Structure formats: C-alpha cells, structure tokens
C-alpha cells in the first residue's frame, strides 16, 4: 500500500532560520533608540516595518531602500540608518531548544539544509557569528537568489540544490504561508511552534532517539 507523503521516510531535514533557529524582532533595536512608547509603536508600524524589510530579503538594494524611506519619512534619518547598520541587534538569541535538535540530527548523520528569507548582507554578517551553520550543507538565501518564500520557485531551486526529492525532505518553518507552499509542492512539512513539538515529530519519524 502506498503511504501518504507525510509518512514517507525522511532523507534530509530543511530548516527555516528566523524564528525557528534564531529569535528575531526589529522592535528590540528601535526600543533602544526611541524612548517614547507611542512613537516607537508608530515607527515600527509605519517606517521600518517587516513588510518593508521583506523587500531587502528579496534582494532589493539596501541603499536605495534607505534613501527612499528617508525621503518618505523626513526627520527619521538616524533611525533608518540604524536599520542598515545595526541589524544584528534585532537578533537577541537562539530559539530555545532548536540548536540542540540540529546538533543531535547532525550527530546521527541526517543531512541538514536551510531555506531562509534573509537579505544577503545581513545574512553574511550574521552567518559569521554562528558556527551552527557549519553543520549544514547548502543554505538557500532569498537575498542571493532574488526569490523568497512562499514563492514556489525558491522551493524548486532548493530541491535541485539539495539533491533530494521534495517528498523525501522535511521542511520546518514558523510561517503558515511558507508551510502551505511547500506542502503543495510535495514536501513533508512541520509547522514550527516550538522545539518541544518539533522534537516529538522528529522522534516519531525516527530521526531522533
């Protein structure tokens, strides 16, 4: 009897990075720079937003983005510059438990890959600080490819790079749209809500003891 894709053996595990392996919150940076709560709320909702930042994840030029934003929101130049120069301060630490899972998978010789929506310069800056990614094979970075999740094309590109069929890979992401896109393309998926649930899933699949 043919088993559904979600019960097929997993040959490789593919991680998202932000909010699966590392915590990320742009508000943390600007809370250091804007003492007034109401102004902080306004700035994060209107000026340096996650939606605007996503343009950089897809490969838009940082200098162009910053200049455009300064023109649109005069009087905020220093704050907008901070986005460009202090991005690592939006990453406060690791998601609890996730790095342990990566190390345990690596110790069991499970092939590890990643697909991340991450701007190229910010990724290079962050990657240099985090040796965990030495345990990974290919890492597909949206800013390098000018493609971002949930676009099907980035999943297709990743499958070619990783060398495994989508149905033989488990993709882990916290974003429901990304999970839906991968599932539609035949990947096995885990919608991340914390390391404990991920560990239970991986154990059930026989990937962890």
Q: Which key features would you list for this structure?
A:
about 210 residues, 2 domains, 11 helices, alpha/beta, single chain, 5-stranded parallel beta sheet, elongated, Rossmann fold
Explain the overall architecture.
The radius of gyration is 18 Å and the shape is elongated. It has eleven helices and five strands, in the order E-H-H-H-H-H-H-E-H-E-H-H-E-H-E-H. Helix 4 runs antiparallel to helix 5. The two termini are 27 Å apart. With 209 residues, the protein is α/β, with parallel strands linked by helices. The longest helix has 11 residues, at 62-72. A five-stranded parallel β-sheet has the order 3-2-1-4-5, with helices on both faces. Helix 7 links the parallel strand 2 and strand 3 (139-141). The protein folds into two domains: 5-23 and 93-204, HAD superfamily/HAD-like (Rossmann fold, 3-Layer(aba) Sandwich), CATH 3.40.50; 26-90. It has helices at residues 26-31, 37-46, 50-57, 62-72, 77-85, 98-107, 120-127, 142-145, 152-162, 176-184, 195-204, and strands at 12-15, 112-116, 139-141, 169-173, 188-191. It comes from Novosphingobium lindaniclasticum LE124. Keywords: Hydrolase. InterPro entries: HAD-like_sf (IPR036412), HAD-SF_hydro_IA (IPR006439), HAD_sf (IPR023214). This is Hydrolase.
């Amino acid at each position: 009897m043919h088993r559904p894709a979600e019960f097929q053996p997993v040959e490789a595990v593919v991680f998202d990075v932000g909010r699966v392996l590392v915590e990320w919150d742009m508000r943390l940076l600007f809370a250091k720079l804007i003492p007034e709560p109401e102004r902080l709320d306004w700035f994060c909702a209107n000026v340096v937003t996650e939606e605007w930042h996503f343009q950089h994840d897809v490969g838009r030029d940082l200098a162009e983005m910053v200049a455009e934003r300064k023109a649109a929101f005069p009087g905020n130049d220093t704050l907008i510059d901070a986005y460009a120069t202090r991005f690592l301060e939006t990453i406060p630490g690791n998601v609890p438990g996730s790095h342990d899972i990566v190390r345990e998978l690596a110790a069991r010789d499970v092939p590890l890959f990643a697909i991340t929506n991450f701007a190229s310069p910010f990724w290079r800056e962050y990657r240099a600080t985090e040796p965990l990614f030495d345990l990974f094979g290919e890492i597909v970075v949206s800013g390098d490819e000018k493609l971002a999740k949930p676009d099907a094309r980035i999943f297709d590109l990743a499958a070619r790079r990783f060398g495994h069929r989508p149905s033989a890979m488990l993709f882990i992401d916290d974003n429901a749209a990304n999970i839906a896109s991968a599932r539609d393309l035949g990947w096995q998926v885990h919608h991340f809500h914390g390391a404990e649930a991920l560990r239970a899933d991986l154990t059930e699949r026989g990937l962890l003891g």
